[in-house]
Design goal:
Radius of gyration: 18 Å
GO molecular function, one term: ATP binding
CATH class: Alpha Beta
Pfam family, one: ABC_tran
Keywords: ATP-binding, Nucleotide-binding, Translocase, Transport
Structural class: alpha/beta
InterPro entries: AAA+_ATPase, ABC_transporter-like_ATP-bd, ABC_transporter-like_CS, P-loop_NTPase
Helix content: 25-40%
Number of helices: 9
Organism: Saccharopolyspora mangrovi
Strand content: 25-35%
CATH topology: Rossmann fold
CATH architecture: 3-Layer(aba) Sandwich
Length: 256
């Protein structure tokens, strides 16, 4: 699949810098979790990487500037699921998820059996089968979030950008979603970059984490290297202890 590299990226709004000097590399099939306190610039960084926000610096996929790729190829290369999506009216869940297959359709624009199989598989794995015929506007917040993620996953892009993908999901659906993303890394070699508010989920799923604070990289490394009580106290103004799950991954627990 694809290797993602970000070089000295800076972005913001109305001439106000939100992130600056961000550099990171995610190898093929890797998972980088972007963490940081509220207002650190996590979503801004992800939008800039996706090419949805003007920026300086470079975003490279397999050493090619992402912005230089033809639109259709770019859509097959990078998929992005926003934290707060703008959903079209009048579409069912199935029709909406099928939109993710658009970059792979032939000249006539008709989906084939393989496209429908991809969508059916995602609806099943994200517990959406029972909602397949429902209109998007009738869904709860968590159900809508799962539909948005299903559409992004249906793209089968080589790089997957997820902005707070577990927002609004209960712990069971959050784990199911992250398990699915992890499985796609193994099956397809998908490269993943996600912002995650839940530090324990970030520690248990991302191979490496990038701690963003005030728009700059405060630390980058394995979860064990970055998620320390001292670092979290400094960057989050939080009282926490770091426990260990059975697999050895960190569990971030607050202290009253």
């Amino acid at each position: 699949m694809s290797r993602l590299e970000v070089r000295d990226l800076a972005a913001g709004y109305r001439r106000r810098a939100v992130v600056s000097g961000v550099s990171a590399t995610v190898d093929t099939g890797g998972w980088l979790g972007i963490i940081g306190p509220n207002g650190a610039g996590k979503s801004t960084l992800l939008k800039a990487i996706a090419g949805l926000l003007g920026h300086s610096g470079q975003v490279l996929v397999d050493d090619r500037p992402l912005a230089s790729l033809p639109r259709r190829e770019r859509a097959r290369t990078v998929a992005y699921a926003p934290q707060i999506p703008q959903l079209p009216m009048g579409l069912t869940v199935t029709d909406y998820v099928l939109l993710g297959r658009t970059p792979h359709l032939g000249p006539l624009g008709w989906e084939g059996r393989s496209d429908l199989d991809v969508v059916d598989d995602l609806l099943t794995r994200l517990d959406l089968t029972g909602l397949a015929g429902r209109q998007l506007h009738t869904l709860s917040g968590g159900e809508r979030q799962r539909a948005v993620l299903a559409r992004a996953l249906a793209q089968r892009a080589s790089v997957l950008l997820l902005d707070e993908p577990t927002t609004g999901l209960d712990i069971g659906h959050a784990q199911a979603l992250l398990d699915l993303v992890d499985e796609l890394r193994g099956e397809l070699g998908t490269t993943v970059v996600s912002t995650l508010h839940d530090l324990t989920l970030a520690a248990q799923y991302a191979e490496r984490v990038l701690l963003l604070d005030d728009g700059e990289v405060a630390a980058e490394g394995t979860p064990g290297e970055v998620l320390t009580p001292a670092a979290l106290a400094e960057r989050y103004t939080a009282r926490v202890t770091v426990l260990r799950a059975p697999d050895g991954s960190p569990v971030i627990a607050p202290i009253r």
